[in-house]
Specification:
The chain has 279 residues and is an alpha+beta fold. It has helices at residues 18-27, 102-105, 121-129, 139-152, 168-179, 187-193, 198-209, 213-230, 235-241, 247-258, 262-269, and strands spanning 29-36, 39-45, 50-57, 60-64, 67-71, 75-79, 85-89, 93-100, 113-116, 157-158, 161-163. The protein has two domains: 18-158, Regulatory protein AraC (Jelly Rolls, Sandwich); 165-269, Homeodomain-like (Arc Repressor Mutant, subunit A). The strands form two sheets. A six-stranded antiparallel beta sheet has the order 1-8-3-6-9-10. The longest helix is centred in the C-terminal third of the chain and has 18 residues, at 213-230.
């Protein structure tokens, strides 16, 4: 019987030793328990291994050159190998992360995304994360790793992202909308200021982004409201501060994205965490 042992990490990878990373190529997956204080980690970085993470409580946002993903509790965030990204978390988080060897990461998405987390996968990784690092080459741990990969292949993509188009003019518009979601600048003004006709902008935007600018702006507003949600503000304040005309419209839009109400989401991410320790 193995001893329970929490392998400590500092918001991802900083506290692990070089020897620990060398183990990834041998054992293919290292799972680690996460607990952090309220923190905003905005330094861009990348690593040769892929990273999977899941939160029990709190939330995180990942921004990369391809877009922004939001990771609510009980969904998995996926970061591929060598993908430059930065992590934003304005709430206390608990959960786990798994570092995956790049040779096995190629069968999964090529850009950061959100995946479903099955009822089997979460306790399986929790058990992996409690395994003593020095004993991860044991047959029992390798069996857990094999089951982990089999289960991970069944995970489904979740629509909790906003892509950033690579076309220079469209990217400029996307970044503006992400940074200023409450600015009700018209489609005509967006097109004119970027040397496009309204019709051309709508067509190119839909082709590159996969949704209308109207829908993109609405999701950006919802993502903007998550800071207020985790800060414990009232739902009415959240709706008003992110630019919705009514609370009911905000709740409806929120449910379309997260499949739950803002209040239920708030209760989940703000569940009292008694040990806010930076691991």
């Amino acid at each position: 019987m193995h001893k329970h042992h929490h392998n400590k990490i500092l918001i991802g990878i900083e506290a692990m030793q070089a020897a620990d990373f060398d183990m990834i190529s041998t054992i293919k997956a290292i799972a680690i328990c996460l607990t952090s204080e309220n923190v905003k980690l905005d330094s861009t970085h990348q690593h040769r291994f892929a990273q999977l993470y899941c939160l029990k409580h709190g939330q995180m946002m990942i921004q990369s050159s391809t877009g922004i993903i939001v990771t609510p509790p009980h969904c998995m965030g996926w970061i591929p190998s060598y993908c430059e990204h930065h992590i934003i978390s304005n709430s206390g988080v608990t959960g786990w992360t798994v570092f995956i060897d790049e040779s096995l990461a190629t069968i999964f998405p090529k850009e950061p995304t959100i995946l479903s987390c099955s009822f089997l996968l979460e306790p399986l990784i929790q058990r992996m994360a409690e395994w003593e690092m020095a004993k991860m080459e044991q047959r029992e741990y390798q069996h857990l790793v094999n089951v982990f990969f089999d289960e991970l292949k069944q995970a489904e993509l979740q629509p909790l992202s906003l892509p950033i188009p690579q076309d220079a003019r469209l990217k400029k518009i996307a970044l503006y909308l992400l940074e200023n979601p409450t600015d009700e600048v018209s489609l005509e003004d967006l097109a004119q200021s970027n040397g496009l006709s309204t019709r051309s902008l709508s067509r190119h935007w839909s082709n590159h982004v996969g949704m209308s600018i109207k829908k993109y702006r609405q999701i950006a507003k919802i993502f903007k409201s998550l800071d207020d949600i985790t800060a414990g503000k009232s739902i009415e304040q959240c709706a008003w501060r992110c630019g919705f005309e009514s609370t009911s419209a905000y709740i409806l839009a929120f449910k379309r994205i997260f499949k739950t109400t803002p209040k239920e989401y708030q209760n989940l991410v703000n569940l009292n965490i008694t040990k806010n320790i930076l691991l």
